[in-house]
Write a structure and sequence with these properties.
- The protein is built from 7 helices and 19 strands.
- It is α/β, with parallel strands linked by helices.
- The structure holds zinc ion (ZN) (2 copies).
- One zinc ion binds next to loops.
């Protein structure tokens, strides 16, 4: 059996004929296995959905009760038989509930990792290394220029600015699923105890995280807060809100944007961001190559992002590698090739 007999690319995305399912399909299918709840991976309208309980909850929050014909929770480490295959969900360290999906048949294991990062995040289970023959990796930041550095250091920059300008408001643009909650958790870890304000688009997901026992401290809705009340405070909002009329309610706001793309100064300037924060929920270049190596996989399939550099790097290490051109990824979180106030996600979320 070849790996292509287990997983193959179809117009709807990665498909396992043997098991009768797709992984993160971009079109409605009969049975979908979903790695995580970002909207480009998790779409509404599938017949049956198998995903972690958190991913199912987050899909429900975003799309409503009837987002799929039926749902089945997959707990980390538990195996499920599907057709001639065995599938197991493992933590991907990307956002709450995010999973890598291992598909096994005839002694061959292929791991579809979805989006992942291999650094600590107080809001989700840490990335689990799953040895495999074929590893499907993302390539959002697969260029040597992308080294994310230390998220705590970026949070310290934000808190320094808040201390420096106690009369101003700080507006932090962050993707509403995962990034916003991670920033809040990191602020709490750094000792920031004041109430943190939320844009309406990040409220429900943030409250869901808090309900899962993640320590986010006191949260308040921006809605209804007076200008004076917002002085000296931190507010989380979708990146798209930074340049909207909405932002005018804040006293002399300092705008920050938390994204791996902030490593590129021109990106920050282009979006009028005063305080770029290099914080990403994706592995950086070092993280990608360390992970690819550690899986022991002899064959690497590369999805969404900067596939070429990673495919080339694999070739120099004697690994078989090829890009998987999946149309439809990269509309939410740092996957978006050109994130920012104009193209960024967020305005569509209730
Ligand atoms: Zn994602
Ligand atoms: Zn993605």
């Amino acid at each position: 059996m070849r790996p292509e007999d287990i997983l193959a690319l179809t117009p709807a995305g990665v498909c396992c004929k043997l098991g009768g399912f797709h992984i993160d399909p971009t079109r409605p299918v009969e049975r979908a296995l979903i790695t995580h709840a970002h909207s480009d991976h998790a779409r509404a309208g599938h017949g049956a959905v198998l995903a972690t309980p958190e991913t199912l909850d987050l899909m429900r929050l975003r799309y409503g009760e009837n987002f799929a014909g039926s749902t089945q929770p997959a707990h980390y480490g538990e195996s499920v038989k599907l057709g001639g295959t065995k599938v197991t969900f493992h933590p991907a360290g990307h956002v709450l509930g995010s999973a890598q999906i291992a598909v096994e048949a005839n002694g061959l294991r292929v791991v579809a990792s979805g989006d992942y990062k291999n650094v600590p995040d107080p809001t989700c289970a840490p990335f689990a290394l799953v040895p495999c023959e074929v590893f499907i990796t993302e390539a959002t930041f697969a260029l040597p220029v992308f080294r994310h550095g230390d998220a705590d250091g970026e949070i310290a920059k934000l808190l320094h600015s808040v201390a420096l300008f106690p009369e101003r408001a700080h507006l932090v643009g962050a993707y509403s699923l995962g990034k916003a909650q991670r920033i809040i958790a990191l602020l709490r870890k750094a000792g920031h105890e004041a109430p943190i304000y939320l844009h309406g688009a990040v409220e429900s997901i943030t409250r869901y995280y808090a309900g899962r026992g993640i320590a986010l401290g006191e949260l308040r809705a921006v809605r209804g807060a007076s200008k004076a009340e917002l002085a000296g405070t931190i507010t989380l909002c979708p990146p798209s809100a930074l340049n909207e009329i909405w932002a005018r309610r804040f006293p002399d706001p300092v705008t920050a944007f938390a994204s791996g793309w902030m490593r590129i100064r021109a990106r920050a300037r282009q979006h009028g961001v005063a305080l770029p924060l290099v914080i990403s929920d994706h592995a950086d270049w070092d993280g990608l190559i360390a992970t690819v190596t550690a899986t022991g996989a002899g064959e690497i399939w590369v999805t969404h992002g900067q596939e070429d550099a990673l495919v080339h790097w694999c070739a120099t290490r004697g690994l078989k590698a090829r890009p998987l051109d999946i149309v439809g990824y990269g509309e939410e979180d740092d996957d978006a090739v050109s994130p920012g106030p104009v193209e960024g996600n967020g305005e569509a979320e209730a």
